Amino acid sequence: MIEQLKKGILTGIGLGLMTNEKILEFARKSAEEAKLSTEEARKLADELLEQSEEAKKKLEDKIDEQIKQQFDRMGLATKEDVAELKKEILKLHKGQKKQKKVSS
Predict the structure, then answer these.
(1) Cα separation of 27 and 46, whole Å?
(2) In whole angstroms, what is the distance from residue 97 CA to residue 84 CA?
(3) Domain-by-domain residue ranges, the chain?
(4) Are 18 and 26 in contact (CB under 8 A)?
(5) Biggest CA-to-CA distance, the chain
(6) 42, 51, 53, 92 — which has fewest CB within 10 A?
(7) CA distances from residue 33 to 4, 37, 43, 59 in whole angstroms, order as listed
(8) Terminal CA-CA length for the chain
(9) How confident is the model over 8-53, as pLDDT tens digits?
């Protein structure tokens, strides 16, 4: 059971790392070996491409999550943090300009 799970995970990661061209080639070879009809082969290719995109998305999400955790651990500001600080600085700067006009 665990071996099947490992193979499934590794296959998912492998699909996520394969190019569409390689996936289509793999689907074509698999379809030939299994003697699938043209429609079945097309369906297999579509399913593999879809699974590949899902695996890529999950992998990207996991990487993004890990990077964010590392940034948090290191105390580094994210792009969003910097953008928020810029907004606050502009807001304070505008407030200072208004105060100078009122006091003049």
Answers:
(1) 9
(2) 20
(3) 2-76
(4) yes
(5) 87
(6) 92
(7) 22, 11, 15, 30
(8) 79
(9) 555 666 666 677 787 778 777 877 877 878 888 788 888 888 888 8
